[in-house]
Amino acid sequence: MSQTRIRELIVTPIAFGDPPLLNSNGVHEPLALRIILQLVLEDGTVGLGESPGGTTRLERLQAAAKVVVGMDVFDTTAVAAAIDAALLPTVPSSHERGWTTSAVEVACLDAQGKLLGRPVSDLLGGRVRDAVPFAAYLFYKWAEHPALDGRPAITDDWGEALDPAGIVEQARLMQERYGFRSFKLKGGVFPPDEEIAAIRALAEAFPGQPLRLDPNVAWTVETSKYVARELDGVLEYLEDPTKGIPGMAEVAKESPLPLATNMCVIAWEHLKPAVERHAIQVLLTDHHYWGGLRRTRELAAVCEAFGLALSMHSNSHLGISLAAMTHVAAAIPNLDHSCDTHYPWNSADDVIVPGVLELRDGEVRVPTGPGLGVELDHDKLERLHRRYVDSGMRGRDDTGYMRRIQPEYELRLPRW
Ligand code: GKR
Ligand code: MG
């Protein structure tokens, strides 16, 4: 048994390129942060994990690395409990601790799969689909990161998208490059009527293809009701139009559209009040904060019990996360909507060896190799780690970056 014991957890912060994507908080910075985990077993097997970045998450993962040494990689319950106990004195929120345990659980499952020669989806009960559908994640965006403090402008091959025509063009590119068959627009950037016009333009350009809009709580309850009425019959769901379970419940009373969230139901204790108040009809799950892949599958069963539909949330991420999302989505029978992914925006800087994960026809085929089925590119990891060190960036700050470019920018939520 000793070969299944954890010898070391290597925690590597990295920085990778990100285009100037706009949202209700400002704009994405030229770099995004993630943390890559390598869980090394006594026999040399390595399990991979990926977590959102930033100093806080890094320090917590480093604390986790100290307590998991010597534990059995198959004992994920004990591994999570040990990490939880280590973090408890300084991190009172179980949701917050969940980010750390989740990332380590994925690395444990990858290692388990490698030991057994079975894909992670098998460890989650087996896949119910061979390919997982993803939606094109559309963003209003600038043509480039403007030149700043001596750094030249950074361009990309997506171009500008600041009006309905720009959004439709971006959607066409997404479809051409990846074959997406459903679309999500990140809203909360322009006055609601402009975003309604963009959605209508998408509906005209892509008839019959599911559409969703997510302004990340940029609207009041009244504005949310207005948008829901205007887009009745056009959207499959409206995501986080307004803040909190009480606000969403107010909107839901009159909304002809289902409401979805990845903001007001993000922990187990939020489920009861959300269900009691009929605040949401669709839950966007995310294994990075729901406690890992097994807990995500359990969450899917809870959603089924309460008649909530299921979709999946994404943040800027790389291939280890995409592999984990794909395995768990493959093992969830009641996945009702295509999953979100930022991958097209960031995949050029991935840390995994290309070839296994491919977005084609709007889907990712579930890797069938052992574990997550993806392999780390160590040179790339080293380069992206260097970039992290050299950048001095230690957290995400969409608002601060926006203010450096447009000093008059004010963060207001709700804004409309
Ligand atoms: O990348 O700007 C972004 C998104 O707004 C992201 O931060 C959100 O977490 O994609 C997310 C969402 O659906 O709310
Ligand atoms: Mg969202």
UniProtKB/TrEMBL annotation:
Catalysis performed (reactions): D-glucarate = 5-dehydro-4-deoxy-D-glucarate + H2O
Enzyme class: lyase
Keyword flag Chloroplast: no
Cofactor entry: Mg(2+)
Active site: K186 (proton acceptor), H313 (proton acceptor)
Single GO MF annotation: glucarate dehydratase activity
CDD domains in the record: D-glucarate_dehydratase (cd03323)
Pathway annotation from the record: Carbohydrate acid metabolism; D-glucarate degradation; 2,5-dioxopentanoate from D-glucarate: step 1/2
Ranges where the Mandelate racemase/muconate lactonizing enzyme C-terminal domain occurs: 164-258
Taxonomy, superkingdom: Bacteria
Keywords: Lyase, Magnesium, Metal-binding
EC number of this enzyme: 4.2.1.40
Family: Belongs to the mandelate racemase/muconate lactonizing enzyme family. GlucD subfamily.
Designated name of the protein: glucarate dehydratase
